[in-house]
Amino acid sequence: MKADVLLGLQWGDEGKGKVVDVLAPRYDVIARFQGGPNAGHTLEFEGIKHVLHTIPSGIFHPTKINIIGNGVVIDPVVLKREIDSLVNMGVDIRKNLFISRKAHLILPTHRMLDAASELSKGKAKIGSTLKGIGPAYMDKTGRNGLRVGDIEHPDFQRRYDVLVSKHHELLKHLEFEKPMQEFDHGWAEGIEVIRSLNLIDSEYEINGYLDQGKSVLAEGAQGSLLDIDFGSYPFVTSSNTITAGTCTGLGLAPTRIGEVYGIFKAYCTRVGSGPFPTELEDATGERMRKAGNEFGSTTGRPRRCGWLDLPALRYAIMLNGVTRLIMTKPDVLSGFDTVRVCTHYIYQGQQIDRMPFDIVNNHVQPVYRDFAGWEQPVGDVSDVSDLPLELTSYISFIEAELGVPVVIVSVGPDRKQTLVRIPEFA
Ligand code: GDP
Ligand code: IMO
Ligand code: MG
Q: Is the minimum distance from the CB of 15 to ligand 1 under 6 angstroms?
């Protein structure tokens, strides 16, 4: 068997959590492969709304194995909070949650360093979620990090103290003055919880499951345009959010990757700083934000909104090898007279359909094609053939431009508000 991948093609928050939860019944194993608690994946079903940060979005399916892979960075404080809230809802995570021993830990001082780094950047700040992601990945690649498996080592406390004192030196240099007590609340309890969980060598387990013919869905976090290599650097996150991240983040050979589901909103959003060619800083953008409830699932910050960007989507599809597309949130655009799609950019006086090297310092001007909007609300539509004609044309245009089929259309946050568009896929 090969592992399928589901990941975001934009700047995150495309609806990955919702759709992974919908697809979970088709798989035996759901595995997160990168990122950490900067992610906020929202699931809604039976009147429950739940946001997951570190735990895979298959966790509400009791028979499914959920794995936090080696590529993820884990904050024990956040993980404990997530587990407590699931246990309160009656989810038995002891049975179906497994954590890679090779996943790196986010220390309280990583969060302090994140805050210090952002403060020192002033106006040029990344707009980080301040969850300690960048500093934790820096320690990983700098070969100083602590891993989940290290918790079982008798020397863990000493190694923690050494790393913390190194961080304090850096914090002094950055003139960060907030006390450690504001940040390390719950650390010891979090570590104890991790110690009590199912810790595994996830690369062996996942490859073993595939050998046994079990199906695996890898769940991405963030989005392709926040990728450390291919996003609008430096306004990116600190991991590879693209399909390649699945290989390193789970220990899967490239030949073991099967279908790649690329998920995108019917428009675009971005939270945090950085270029956003189709951004609408006007009443239309405000209307999208309101209708789409576009406020960060992790930080509550308002998300920036704008029209769909095809050059950016083409780029993401190329990088990821997307085989199936999933569109979310077209319901948000109901009632807009006109819906616009950016088909090209004007860059340095030329029309291009690529993502240029530097869109941070050089402005790209979107070239739009306009579509008639759809008047009716679509949240209650239960069959794809009942979608308004205007929306169907909009989807068909995007599909033709991108050369990849749109197999699922999500028309609301609930599990049930999911339409299968390609019959063979049902
Ligand atoms: P993720 O990070 O990709 O999992 O996405 P988030 O959960 O951060 O943000 C997506 C938001 O849109 C959440 O509030 C979801 O409940 C909601 N959502 C997901 N799909 C749809 C949809 O098709 N329509 C609407 N209106 N909301 C959706
Ligand atoms: P999910 O998985 C949207 C953004 C931050 C910031 C940049 C760097 O829910 O789609 P970081 O905390 O990683 O140092 O922040 O990346 N960002 C996200 N934006 N969705 C996310 O995750 C994000 N995770 C990080 O806003 O601009
Ligand atoms: Mg999110």
A: yes
Catalytic residue among 4, 13, 21, 331: 13
Q: Are 97 and 74 in contact (CB under 8 A)?
A: no
DSSP secondary structure of 361-375: TS--EEEEEEEE---
Task: Output helix, strand, coil percentages for the chain, rounded to the nearest 5.
Answer: 35, 20, 40
pTM of this prediction exceeds 0.85: yes
C-beta atoms surrounding 367 within 10 Å: 16
Distance CA(322)–CA(339), nearest Å, equals 25
Q: Residue 133: CB partners within 8 Å, gap ≥ 6? A: 35, 36, 37, 38, 73, 106, 114, 237, 238, 239
Environment class of residue 127 by beta-carbon count within 10 Å: exposed (0-12), middle (13-18) or buried (19+)?
middle
Model pLDDT for residues 179-225, shown as the tens digit of each residue: 999 999 999 999 999 999 999 999 999 999 999 999 999 999 999 99
Q: Could you say which of 4, 21, 28, 41 is catalytic?
A: 41
Cα(297) to centroid(ligand 1), Å: 9
